[in-house]
Amino acid sequence: MTSDRARTPLRPVCALAGLFALALGLVAPAGAQDSNAEPCDANGTNLNSECVFESLAKEEATDAAGGFDWVPISEVPEALRDRQCVNCRGRYIDPLADESKATPPEESSIYSISNASELEGETITLTGGVSASQGYRRLEGDTAIINRAQDSATIEGNVTLREPGVLLRGEKAKIYSDSGEAILQTSQFVFHQEHIRGTADLLERREDGMVHIHDGNFSYCAPGEDDWAIRAEQLDLDLPEGLATAHNARIEVEGVPIFYTPWLRFPLDDRRRTGFLWADFGNDSTGGLDITVPFYMNLAPNYDALYSPRYIEERGLNHQLLLRYLNPTVGQWSFGGAYMNKDDRYEDQVADNRSTDRWLVAVEHNGLFNQRWRSRVDYSKASDVDYIKDLETTNLESQRRTSLLQLASVDYLGKQWLLNLQAQQFQSLADDINDDYKKLPQFNANYRGSGDLFTLQPVFFGQLSNFETDEDNLVIGKRAYGEAGVTYPMRWLWGFLQPTVKYRQLYYDLSDATVFPDDSPRVGAPLASLDGGLVFERNTAMAGRELLQTLEPRLFYLYSEFEDQRDQPDFDSAELTFSYNQLYRETRFSGHDRIDDANQIAVGLSSSLIDATDGRTLLTGSLGQIYYFRDRKVRLLPIEEPLTDSGSEIAGELTFNPTDQLSLRTSLVYDPFEDRMDSANFQTHYRLDNGAIFNVGYSFRRPLTATTAVAFGQPTTEEASVSTYLPLTHNWSVFGAINYSLEADTSVEDMIGVEYDSCCWTVRLLYLRYFNNEGNEFTDFDDPNLERENTTQFQIILKGMGGFGDRITNIMEDLIRGFEERDY
């Protein structure tokens, strides 16, 4: 039987032809269904035969333009030219990307077309451009031979199978409908979303649903590029699970084998899998060659484990373990730890009778119950004060830590009450800092009013604390602090006014208070404040840009009685560093060991430029000063003299964001009475469309007072910083950073590196130097024992496969503001 090119649904023919799609797809085979023709819609759903022909024609045009759905960047729509597309000079564009998946294919009719068909006994032969469609599945070939007795079909010549995100091609395919098995010879495949392509001498879909590729390869590289590929005698692809296993595999670079493994398992997506992760290695002056081989264990959907044995050449083997657990009832938990039995290098640095076993414990927890109860644990403890400096070398942030937090807290988030119970202490990592006082425990209660405007709102805050310490000859005891009063908020479109009146009370119950005449001192003082401001607006234009300019003057008057507090301890308080935000605070101290006296008014002025079209703030500037009507007698230390200046420093801030690429922030504190700058900070960040990053920074700060400089060893600090990530060509980039101490005239931290980045892989080499300050909070550049450490790190990332050398990423993100590792 022969016929002209068919344009009607063919149930017996198309059901078997569609088996190829079903056999290699993700669902079980299903019979075809007839349906009445329906008009095409914009999304291509409810396709009748005419719509199928139009869809197939569009797909053929796409393949003709790009080949295996690869479209060169010159033909990619502007909206799709992301960083990956630019880096690869093109991208895969799936012609079925917009197909609706709401209706499963097995619930859709199957349509088939061919130039001619012939029926002979139990064999049906379709010839001349065979095409079939079932829902979002597409099948094409030159000829199809269907054996109804054996429930099998053979498709030959230019075989193409499509589903959204998947393209399979081959010279010949055979399908067995009774078992679901299928074989595709001399095949090529593309997974669009994963950006993966490959070839196979034989592609087999077995009864168990697995896809097996014999003598095949795959790569993340763009078509025509073979910078790297994985070749294997057999690749087992579990597409529903997103997992691949290679047998007798080798990694090739430019066609040259560089690594062989008899077995390799790797993910095809970002789902968690049990197995080895890429090794991490480097070399530094603190331990020599450093290699970590992580092994990840996906134990259950809500908990997992990561074991990372780490070999350090000059120290030994450090066992590292991280456990994570997530439960709706008990929240999120992570338990981390590390243990090294006998640190060989550390043995030369400590006394003979001191253990050289080194360990670290870290526990973190966050929980939220019934949207009311919140819990948190952040606990870290190390075997010795040098552990972080010696062994936590993955980033510089660890090197800068001077203490380890040990905190547990529970909060109740009521409609009007906020309650908190916490226990907190620190393990000091700096030799010039004693262990801080421990809060064991501390309870806070804060009452929030309704917040309604033009109504009297109550103010209440209370705190009970128990302070302990391991240091000898230090006072310990309990402290109770409370404040209560009322406030009356008033707000209009043109301004605001808010008076507040309250009373603050402080009470102690001290032990070992040998230096204090009273073991239960108490003090209280009233406080009154009046906060008000105006808002002026006007329309303006600059450089052809419509702008809205605001001008916002603000006054804040504060009054509090003086009470002598020289016989009170200092458990957790400090004098706050002056800044613009300090203008409108009710106290100049942190903590609650001091009720400061005040009779002052703060005057501030802010102005902004806002883009009238999109509402983005382009420029904000603020300037202000406090004027004192009397001396401030309450000080942190009894030996400190009263503050007698008639005014504070002048504080200013400026933020400038003219474009999405450029940002500038600066803050200044100028002392007009001493005619000097007390602090200055400047940071600018500029990012180009090609990924280039430029950062320039400067910071300067004097100690709060000469007394605190002597008592706490605070030096004047002045540093300049520069960092960049700079693409030189399409593939090559350089990056670097330097933090330079101007008072010491030397670099504190400096880093330089080079990167080769292609569509297929990334290679980085980094060299870093930094000072080892021997466990002190402030670096003493005059110390003859001050050492400069250095490290060399190497990183390889195979796009789509991951890589080793993650320490480089951590260091770059730490030192280059705005740098983020790319996901491709």
Distance between the first and last residues' Cα:
53 Å
Low-confidence stretches: 1-66, 706-712
Helix/strand class: mainly beta
Helix content: under 10%
Question: If helices are DSSP runs of H or I spanning 4 or more residues, what is the number of helices?
Answer: 8
Main sheet characteristics: 26 strands, antiparallel, barrel
Strand content: over 45%
The geometry reads as elongated
Mean pLDDT, rounded to whole units?
A: 83
Radius of gyration: 35 Å
List keywords for this structure.
single chain; 824 residues; mainly beta; 26-stranded antiparallel β-barrel; 47 strands; 53% strand; disordered N terminus
Structure commentary:
With 824 residues, the chain is mainly beta. It has 8 helices and 47 strands. The strands form 4 sheets. It has a 26-stranded antiparallel barrel. Strands 3, 4, 5, 6, 7, 8, 9, 10, 11, 12, 13 and 14 form a 12-stranded antiparallel beta sheet that branches. Strands 1-2 form a two-stranded antiparallel sheet. The N terminus is likely disordered.
Write the topology of this structure.
Elements: H1 11-17, H2 19-24, H3 49-66, E1 70-72, H4 83-88, E2 90-92, E3 110-113, E4 116-120, E5 123-134, E6 137-147, E7 152-163, E8 166-176, E9 182-191, E10 196-205, E11 211-219, E12 228-238, E13 243-253, E14 256-267, E15 275-276, E16 280-284, E17 288-292, E18 295-300, E19 303-312, E20 316-327, E21 331-340, E22 358-369, E23 373-382, H5 387-391, H6 396-399, E24 403-413, E25 417-428, E26 438-447, E27 457-468, E28 476-487, E29 490-492, E30 495-511, E31 522-534, E32 536-542, E33 545-560, E34 574-575, E35 589-590, E36 598-611, E37 617-628, E38 650-656, E39 662-671, E40 676-687, E41 693-701, H7 706-712, E42 717-727, E43 732-741, E44 746-757, E45 761-772, E46 787-798, E47 802-804, H8 806-815
Antiparallel strand pairs: 1-2, 3-5, 4-5, 5-6, 6-7, 7-8, 8-9, 9-10, 10-11, 11-12, 12-13, 13-14, 15-18, 16-17, 16-46, 17-19, 18-19, 19-20, 20-21, 21-22, 22-23, 23-24, 24-25, 25-26, 26-27, 27-28, 28-30, 29-30, 30-31, 31-33, 32-33, 33-36, 34-35, 36-37, 37-38, 38-39, 39-40, 40-41, 41-42, 42-43, ...
